[in-house]
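Task: complex structure prediction.
Instruction: return structure tokens for all chains below.
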Amino acid sequence: DGGITQSPKYLFRKEGQNVTLSCEQNLNHDAMYWYRQDPGQGLRLIYYSQIVNDFQKGDIAEGYSVSREKKESFPLTVTSAQKNPTAFYLCASTDTGGANTEAFFGQGTRLTVV
Amino acid sequence: AQSVAQPEDQVNVAEGNPLTVKCTYSVSGNPYLFWYVQYPNRGLQFLLKYITGDNLVKGSYGFEAEFNKSQTSFHLKKPSALVSDSALYFCAVRDSLLTGGGNKLTFGTGTQLKVEL
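Output:
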């Protein structure tokens, strides 16, 4: 089945640690996105990538980093510089064939700082 | 810039009654509008979209949405609510004039729908 797989589902991070969230898609989509979800704030865009080896900052990129070495993969690293990383993280992808295409989402990773 | 507003944090409705979840938007060009549903600790599922054409759009699970250009609204509706419809609903917009940003969506803050027996 085609889709987006995020792992792990739950992740715990100690203060000062970097952690990496995985996102893999087999939809053959060119564009991939990372969103952060906090209660009452909706989804906010962290980073996005329209093509391999290229990515752009979204609205809240500070304290995060990404890479796009393969079309299928778009991992997100939450660095120690991110002051409040506890949140639900969602990865999505779209076909860049047209702006009217819907986004497909993974099942999310819940990150908690302990 | 593109933006979307969902004015209600929560909507309560009795099972079998019609439901409406409100959404208004702001864009410079023409809007591409989407509704998504999220169940607890899960990703977002696509329900329906408006691109152009008929103002009434039909989607998954019996949901539909009405596009109103003069009121810049895209309200989600269902004629008869089910308890299983209880979830968090997000409206999203993409501006047809947005360039250089891929297919970025701007999401509303979400509306929690609670359907009770």
